[in-house]
Structure formats: C-alpha cells, structure tokens
Design a protein that fits this description.
By secondary structure, this protein is α+β, with helices and mostly antiparallel strands. The chain has 4 helices and 6 strands, in the order E-E-H-H-E-E-H-H-E-E. Helix 1 packs antiparallel against helix 2.
Length: 151
C-alpha cells in the first residue's frame, strides 16, 4: 500500500525547530514559511531582509537537493530539517535525507556553473553561510550562519 504525502511534523522550543516531512517539493515551501516565521519571532539579529533571503536561499537549496537527489522524490522517505539558535547572532541548520549520500568533497571547490541549471548549491552555501559540511556518507548537511560576519 502506497504511503500518502505527509505534511510537516514540527517540534519547537525557544532555541530549536525540528521539521520532518515526506519528500515532496510542496513541503519545502511550507517548511521555509515555518522557519521564516520562527526566525522573525525568536531572533532579533535576523531582521534584515538580506539575511532572511540568504537563510531561505540556502535552506531551500539544501531541502531541494534532499528531496530530488537524496530521496529521489520518494514520498515514503523523510527529510529532516533542524534549526538551532546558538545565540543572538548565530544559527545552525541540519538537513538530512534518507538517500545513499554523495561525495560532496569532489564538488566543494568547483566553480559556479553560470550556464548550467544545476550544480550551484555548494557555491551558494559557501557564499552565504559561514560554514558548511556534510557527514561522511553525504546525506546530512550541516550549515552555520553568523549574522555578524556575513552579508
């Protein structure tokens, strides 16, 4: 029996937001709206529109990769997004899929492909976030943004 597309499952505290959803693109939009509202309500340092743009751009890129490439749009597989507020000027994001992972190191120093319709995720992450890395398998993305040191 096929499993239906599950909407967001949200767990929230004062300094942490955890969102789980089945792998569909429509759930990415909903997750991004929840994160934006959460940041606006909980973190004074992220009030500038350019900072919200950067968080949403990188988060959307990571979630899209998790759905399309990691889980191959299989709605029986989940994507997990965790956001942690470290202090008033720093956040961590963690995006996990249930896929096989990939060798992210071979893409780490690649140039931004101007004419391509893919391959921009890692350069974008490095541009807008303070740090990014993956686990060994390549199915969990770790991101850190220090609002005082970027944009």
């Amino acid at each position: 029996m096929a499993r239906k597309n599950r909407k967001l499952q949200i767990t929230q505290t004062d300094n942490m937001l955890d969102i789980r959803f089945s792998s569909s693109l429509e759930n990415i939009d909903a997750a991004c709206r929840v994160v934006t509202r959460y940041l606006l309500n909980c973190l004074a340092a992220v009030q500038r529109p350019d900072q919200l743009f950067a968080v949403n751009l990188v988060m959307r890129e990571g979630l899209t990769n998790a759905v399309l490439h990691g889980n191959k749009s299989d709605i029986t597989k989940d994507v997990r997004l965790t956001l942690k507020i470290v202090d008033e000027t720093s956040i961590f994001l963690e995006i996990e899929d249930q896929g096989d992972g990939f060798d992210w190191r071979k893409h780490k120093d690649s140039e931004f492909p101007l004419a391509a319709d893919h391959g921009r995720g890692i350069p974008i992450m490095g541009t807008y976030f303070t740090r990014y890395t993956y686990n060994e398998k390549g199915n969990i993305l770790f991101l850190q943004m220090d609002f005082t040191s970027r944009i």
